[in-house]
Specification:
Blueprint (H helix, E strand, L loop, with lengths): L1 H25 L7 H27 L6 H22 L15 H34 L8 H5 L3 H25 L8 H21 L4 H41 L1
Length: 253
């Protein structure tokens, strides 16, 4: 099973690299924000190449601790860069009219949530490194017995406790968004729903067993949540700038 997963992973790497190269070449044809798009497109290509090398090192090193976390950090960075390129390259992107609404508190808490999410994702990668070590050294221990081994490590304890920062900041984000009745914000609802789903998966792994499928879903949800949150921050930041410009125009007049 692990051999086939690794084989499929390598098969996906080639079209991903070709797509990144094509994106970098076509970035010169961008009509809007060409400078930013070119720079970010070539950064994404560099990220893909470096991450491919890191992937090879992960296999060659026998899942050496630290390399997997760096591998995941580069993947998270690639998501952020690609979401930014998509936002900048949309000529028809529409921003919800905000008038003179103060969006700064909502933007600040959204950025704080994103920072907590990024940090929690890296901590989760280190927990994943520990499960790989258990798989190699635990011998006859079953996955439901891994929990006792993981619970003694400080990284696992921080990862579990730090997850509450995501729930609290996501809750504050939703609360602030609901206090702006003139604007219908959908993203905070999706964000808190995914946070609750991730915490539920964490409960399953903490109290039942470290199931492989739950691990995959946990990481996958983190990636989707990262993309949605970053797109939300970009959109919210653009609306906040428009609101600030509207306030400035009103003051001048």
């Amino acid at each position: 099973m692990h051999t086939w997963i690794e084989f499929c992973n390598r098969l996906i790497t080639l079209p991903l690299g070709l797509a990144a190269l094509l994106l970098a070449l076509l970035s010169f044809t961008a009509r809007n924000h060409r400078g930013w798009i070119v720079a970010l497109a070539w950064l994404s290509l560099a990220d893909v190449v470096i991450n491919a090398v890191m992937g090879a090192l992960v296999v060659a090193s026998g899942l050496q601790p630290g390399i997997i976390t760096l591998h995941m950090a580069l993947a998270f960075l690639l998501i952020v860069v690609l979401v930014t390129i998509i936002w900048l390259s949309r000529p028809d992107r529409q921003l919800t009219p905000v008038g003179q609404t103060n969006l700064r508190p909502l933007l600040v808490i959204s950025i704080l949530f994103f920072a907590c999410l990024f940090a929690e994702g890296l901590l989760g990668s280190q927990v994943r490194e520990q499960t790989d070590e258990l798989a190699q050294a635990a011998g006859q221990l079953s996955r439901d017995q891994w929990i006792g081994e993981l619970a003694t490590t400080w990284i696992y304890k921080i990862h579990r406790s730090f997850s509450w920062s995501l729930l609290i900041s996501a809750g504050l984000m939703l609360l602030l968004a609901l206090r702006i009745p003139s604007i219908r914000f959908v993203e905070p609802k999706w964000i808190i729903a995914m946070v609750l789903a991730m915490m539920l998966m964490g409960v399953v792994m903490a109290h039942i067993a470290v199931y492989q499928i739950v691990q995959v879903l946990h990481v996958g949800t983190t990636a989707v949540l990262l993309a949605v949150t970053w797109h939300w921050i970009i959109r919210l930041g653009s609306m906040a700038r428009r609101a600030g410009a509207s306030q400035a125009d009103s003051s001048n007049s």
